[in-house]
Amino acid sequence: MALEEYKRKRRFEETPEPPPKVAKKAGNRFVVQKHDATRLHYDFRLEMEGVLKSWAVPKGPSLDPADKRLAMHVEDHPVSYFDFEGNIPENNYGAGTVIVWDVGTWQPLSPVAVDGKYKPGTEAEAAAMLAKGDLKFRLNGKRLKGDFALVKMKGRRPGSKGNEWLLIKKHDDQVVEGYDIEEFDDSVLSGRNLEEVAGDSGSREWKSRPTGRGTLKAAWLADADARIDKEKAGANEQKKNASPPKAQRTKTQRTLRSKKKIA
């Protein structure tokens, strides 16, 4: 997919998402963004061929090989989307709150195992595997590590658009049986969860940094971190006065969030 579809679906005068632009330099980053849109899901993106190849994963990635996660192949995104975190306004495509759930680098693996193990592959092999519908790769992220595969489903169900894939963890020393993604609900960049970003008026005014690789920590994130530090200092002062700790998210909040539709 090219960025034309990404551009067609968005009104950039209204959404804080970065504009479409294909990167000139090759990269090997990956990002997983937790997206509370019309229904909560995770966007899994691999930097490849100057864009972020993207899949929407309703239940999110897993470190348990027993979990074969449905992954819907969606439009390519610009690489400047890599550290996007904020709120997409109502009446825009994908309206809702986004946080960066994981970041890191990825490496393609050879399509054929040698002695039961997959060796590092090339960009050409990765492109061929993607076209074939069986992409094997290794992740080195803050939360996701080890070997994975994205496999395109061959069966076409009634009403299918032919974009159904499976995201599968391969067997290696990074396996976590019974993996529970809900144990990790905060951003690896800002430390905030979806509710905190959604309730931050500053997040709604997020402006994309210039396209290109740049630094990982954008100006808006530095401002957010400064606010967080200030809030923590205030919280510590309140503790001295025996004020109660910050309340956890309630079951009602989870129920309301689950009633939204998926973007």
Total beta strand runs: 9
What is the string of SSEs from the N terminus onward?
Answer: HEEEEEEHEEEHHHH
Instruction: Kindly report the spatial arrangement of strands forming the biggest sheet.
Output: 1-2-3-4-9-8-7-6
Mean pLDDT across all residues, rounded? 78
Q: Return residue spans where pLDDT drops below 50 for at least 5 consecutive residues.
A: 204-225, 245-256, 259-263
The percent range for helix content is 10-25%
Distance between the termini: 18 Å
Radius of gyration: 19 Å
Biggest sheet layout: 8 strands, antiparallel, barrel
Instruction: State which percent range the strand residues make up.
Output: 25-35%
Tell me the count of domains: 1
What does this 3D model show about the protein?
The chain is an alpha+beta fold and 263 residues long. The protein has one domain (3-258). It has 6 helices and 9 strands; from the N terminus they run αββββββαβββαααα. The chain has helices spanning 3-8, 123-132, 194-198, 201-204, 219-240, 251-258, and strands at 29-36, 40-48, 51-57, 68-77, 86-88, 96-108, 134-141, 145-152, 164-169. The protein has an 8-stranded antiparallel beta barrel with strand order 1-2-3-4-9-8-7-6. The protein is globular. The model is unreliable at 204-225, 245-256 and 259-263 (pLDDT under 50).
